[in-house]
From TrEMBL:
Pfam families: DIP2311-like_C, Fic. This is Fic family protein. The active site is at H197. Residues 108-266 form the Fido domain. ATP binds at D201, G202, N203, G204, R205, M206, S207, R208, Y239, Y240. It comes from Enterocloster asparagiformis. The keyword Nucleotide-binding applies. SUPFAM superfamilies: Fic-like, Winged helix' DNA-binding domain. PROSITE patterns: FIDO. GO terms for molecular function: ATP binding. Gene3D superfamilies: Fido-like domain, Winged helix-like DNA-binding domain superfamily/Winged helix DNA-binding domain. Keywords: ATP-binding, Nucleotide-binding. InterPro entries: DIP2311-like_C, Fido, Fido-like_dom_sf, Fido_containing, WH-like_DNA-bd_sf, WH_DNA-bd_sf.
Length: 353
């Protein structure tokens, strides 16, 4: 059986290109945390869009489609799936939601990987999900003439369960016993998972779900707001090329992880760049919202209540309004009259003189 020990292998990956990705992503991680904490109330739309795109793209890579309208309804849980494709899409949706909501409580263990795979096929009849392959499988590719050939021979069915056990143990060993950067170990784990190819079906989608799970557990949360799966789909050619390069001589334990690690780190860095591009607009709008609240009070003859302010500045959250009212009061720009539900505000014109 293959040795999945990562404790030394990760050191071979510290090339200038990969170290550059690590440095960039570490910087992005800190900046994202600040933005997410400041604007948690307005990032909801990004989360919803990412969920839809992730579900669509991860399934599309495997040739699983439905219409845009049906996809949105399924992801938002507003309809029941009607076809096999839609049942698999609904299963992906549920596992993605499980990871979003419970990532801190899902150990990287064989039992839990099987449970996630079971839920991936929860809408299917029969025992498709939740069990490792019972017969050997192969990874094929077709040339331009449509002729199939074996690209990779995964681990045999009889040693699959033990291989996944060893893989999970190796992950925890290197994370807990060395100073290896999780960003190096996660792609190595995913590559080995794909080379084991433990399931009859769903290996690619499971690998992408596990990628999110491992990133979240290491506090790299960009996949919550930007679909990593969509970025992989858009660069599918490079994805398969990196996967092929890094799986060559895998059974002989002489494979080079660097191509796949560099590819996945590039995807993660691209996700962060897209996050900052999208939130730049949110930041600009968020900066302008307090000014809109101030103008609503300034233009009001007499006093105005918070509920009246909400009506005058649609699109500004109650949290932002309250924060602005508190700040304007501290600055002396407005006067607060009364308390509780009867609180009113008026512009402090004396302060303008």
């Amino acid at each position: 059986m293959r040795n999945y020990d990562y404790t030394k292998k990760w050191e071979e990956l510290l090339t200038p290109q990969i170290v550059g990705y690590l440095t960039t992503i570490h910087e992005y991680k800190g900046e994202q945390r600040l933005i997410a904490s400041r604007h948690a109330d307005v990032l909801h739309d990004l989360v919803e869009v990412a969920r839809i795109q992730s579900t669509e793209s991860s399934n599309k890579i495997e040739g699983i489609y439905t219409s845009d309208e049906r996809l949105r309804k399924i992801v938002l849980d507003k309809t029941m799936p009607r076809s096999r494709n839609e049942r698999e899409i609904a299963g992906y949706r549920d596992v993605l939601n499980t990871i979003h909501e419970n990532f801190d409580h899902i150990p990287i263990r064989t039992t839990f990987i099987l449970q996630l795979h079971r839920d991936l096929y929860k809408f299917e009849n029969g025992r498709v999900g939740g069990a490792f392959k019972s017969v050997d499988n192969i990874i094929e590719e077709k040339n331009v003439e449509g002729v199939s050939s074996i690209r990779f021979q995964p681990v045999a069915a009889w040693e699959t369960s033990a291989s996944v056990d060893k893989l999970c143990e190796a992950y925890y060993d290197v994370i807990n016993k060395t100073n290896a950067d999780p960003l190096l170990i996660i792609p190595m784990f995913i590559l080995d998972f794909l080379c084991i190819h433990p399931f009859r079906d769903g290996n690619g989608r499971m690998s992408r779900l596990l990628t999110l799970l491992l990133l979240y557990q290491s506090e790299y949360m960009v996949g919550r707001y930007i679909s990593i799966e969509k970025l992989i789909e858009k660069t599918k050619g490079s994805y398969y090329e990196a996967l092929q390069d890094s799986s060559r001589l895998w059974h002989e334990e002489e494979n080079d992880y660097a191509p796949f690690v560099a590819y996945l780190l590039g995807v993660i860095a691209a996700a962060y760049r897209e996050f900052f591009e999208r939130t730049r607009l949110i930041e600009e709008k968020a900066t302008a919202k307090p000014d809109r609240v101030a103008e609503a009070i300034k233009e009001q003859i007499g006093t105005i209540t918070k509920s009246e302010i909400m009506q005058k500045v649609p699109g500004v959250s109650q949290t932002t309004i309250q924060r602005t009212l508190t700040e304007l009061t501290k600055q002396g720009r407005i006067k607060k009259i009364g308390n509780g539900r009867y609180t009113k505000y008026t512009w402090n014109w004396e302060n303008e003189q």
